[in-house]
Amino acid sequence: MACECDMSNSSRHTGERRTLIVGLVCLDIINVLDNYPLEDTDTRVQDQLWERGGNAANTSVVLAQLGVKTEFIGTLADSTLSRLMVEDFHKYGVLIDHCIYHNNCKPPMSCIIVNSSSGTRTILHSNRSLPEVMYEDFELLNLNNYTWIHFEGRNVEEVLKMSERVVMHNGQFIESHDRIQISLELEKPGLKPSFCKLLPKADVVFLSKDVAKESGFQNGEECVLKFSKDVKPGAVVVCAWGELGAWAVGPNGEVVHSPAFPPAKIEDTVGAGDTFNAGVIYALSRGSSILEAIMQGCKIAGDKIGHQGFKIDAGTVTT
Ligand SMILES: Nc1ncnc2c1ncn2[C@@H]1O[C@H](COP(=O)(O)OP(=O)(O)OP(=O)(O)O)[C@@H](O)[C@H]1O
Ligand SMILES: *[C@@H]1O[C@H](CO)[C@@H](O)[C@H](O)[C@H]1NC(C)=O
Ligand SMILES: *[C@@H]1O[C@H](CO)[C@@H](O)[C@H](O)[C@H]1NC(C)=O
Ligand SMILES: *[C@@H]1O[C@H](CO)[C@@H](O)[C@H](O)[C@H]1NC(C)=O
Ligand SMILES: *[C@@H]1O[C@H](CO)[C@@H](O)[C@H](O)[C@H]1NC(C)=O
Which residue range or ranges hold the Carbohydrate kinase PfkB domain (predicted)? Predict the structure, then answer.
């Protein structure tokens, strides 16, 4: 696995290679209630937060908090609402120099209802017009600047072209540490079968419980074993399964499992999966074993769900 060099040094002078996250940033309006509202009632909520959200954006912010030099690329609407997201990236030191601004668009938004009694989250997502990141946008990046590229598997055709460009780029190197590691998150159901073409491009594939179930798999072990037939030889396949923790399989075909590390009280599971992915990428990029990496992911995710919002506790980082 490629190593993040100079991890201890948080200064980010240009030219240093970094981790790139490709995907969505959106605005989340989070309503915290201790009980689900009844239809056609007027309810006062415990709290209402406006936050920067989106899977790829969340993963970026967690990685940056772990001390990884991180860049995010995604689309932003040329709207005052986007300022909130831009400022949040700046706050965490995530580079966004290559983000694409679109005129006359409304940013995607999610309205989320968090049940603070049970910790569940119900998401209502809207996007009326903002285009996704396209291959033409990705083509402008100088790949020499990156050690690891993580794709949120959304617009599969474009992500396929992007990942093929990275595979081509890697072809010129003999030493594995010169090559860019590719990871891919497949979280939303409904992308099958088109995402199958993406699977052989990645070194690490994250499948969600929803995608596993859509494919007819009953548990994380079955999911990683079956999908390991579709990835490239030697790739790592990971599947997180809420309170049951996570499963993974790597080059030797052995399935490993990490339990979840639940906090004393679950406050907010919003973004647990994104936090888990960041923990796994962090650990693998530092040369941890697959088991250590998914344990790291579960520990950070467990810490996150004990808090409202997205601050991770530095004490959780063990590797
Ligand atoms: N209820 C829970 N109890 C303990 N750990 C949990 C719980 N939910 C999530 N986790 C931790 O978070 C990791 C990721 O979980 P999972 O992928 O199911 O999250 P998710 O709900 O899909 O998150 P997201 O909101 O990002 O979509 C799990 O492997 C586990 O370690
Ligand atoms: C990317 O790398 C090139 C040299 O390889 C450098 O000139 C450029 O400044 C880097 N880009 C960024 C945004 O750091
Ligand atoms: C919210 O949590 C409480 C306590 O667990 C539960 O009684 C209630 O049914 C939950 N509501 C929903 C819709 O999840
Ligand atoms: C948003 O919706 C538009 C119009 O349906 C679609 O073309 C675009 O891909 C979507 N973008 C995102 C970021 O989901
Ligand atoms: C990302 O994290 C934010 C909190 O910073 C949260 O509001 C949001 O829902 C998360 N988004 C997703 C898609 O998980």
Answer: 21-309
Q: How many CA atoms lie within 13 A of 220 on its CB side?
A: 24
276-316 pLDDT tens trace? 999 999 999 999 999 999 999 999 999 999 887 777 666 66
Q: Is 118 in the pocket of ligand 3 (CB under 6 A)?
A: yes
pLDDT tens-place string over residues 103-154: 988 889 999 998 878 778 888 999 888 999 999 999 999 999 999 999 999 9
28 lines ligand 5 (CB under 6 A): yes
Instruction: Give the domain 2-36+45-316 fold.
Output: UDP-N-acetylmuramoyl-L-alanine:D-glutamate ligase (3.40.1190)
Tokens, residue 122: 């119900």
145 CB under 6 A from ligand 2?
Answer: yes
CA 69 – CA 89 distance, rounded (Å): 12
